[in-house]
Amino acid sequence: MEKINFIATSPTELADLINEGLKNHVENLINQFSEQDKTAKDFLTRKETADFFGVSLVTLHDWNKKGLITPLKMGNRTYYKRSELVKSLLNSNNRAS
């Protein structure tokens, strides 16, 4: 790791160095998430969805009844669309207030 002498660095230069480091870190995170999205399944089973949220199947059923998440049915199977789950997770803060 490089050592930086803060005494000889102006506040503007220090801010630029921090911004550059953060920019690289954020770009790496974005690339990681986009790669995960490409390999992730679009539809999850009930068990996978419960694991995704870290809840039990009973809680998942309760959320279905309350309309917090929307299941998709095919025959006797139940699936959840990953993008809808993420959307409902992001919107959960709006419902709580």
Sheet/helix structural class: mainly alpha
Name the CATH class of the largest domain: Mainly Alpha
Which overall shape is indicated by the principal axes computed on the Cα atoms? elongated
Number of helices: 4
Q: How are the strands of the biggest sheet laid out side by side?
A: 1-3-2
Query: Mean pLDDT, rounded to whole units?
Result: 83
Main sheet summary: 3 strands, antiparallel
**CATH fold-level label of the largest domain:** Multidrug-efflux Transporter Regulator, Chain: A, Domain 2
| Unreliable sequence segments | none
* Helical content band: 55-70%
Q: How would you spell out the order of helices and strands?
A: HEHHEEH
Oligomer: single chain
The CATH architecture term of the largest domain is Orthogonal Bundle
Q: Please state roughly what percent of the residues sit in beta strands, choosing from under 5%, 5-15%, 15-25%, 25-35%, 35-45% or over 45%.
A: 5-15%
For the record, give the distance between the C-alpha atoms at the N and C termini, rounded to a whole number.
Answer: 45 Å
Characteristics of this structure?
4 helices, elongated, Multidrug-efflux Transporter Regulator, Chain: A, Domain 2, three-stranded antiparallel beta sheet, 97 residues, 2 domains, single chain, 11% strand, mainly alpha
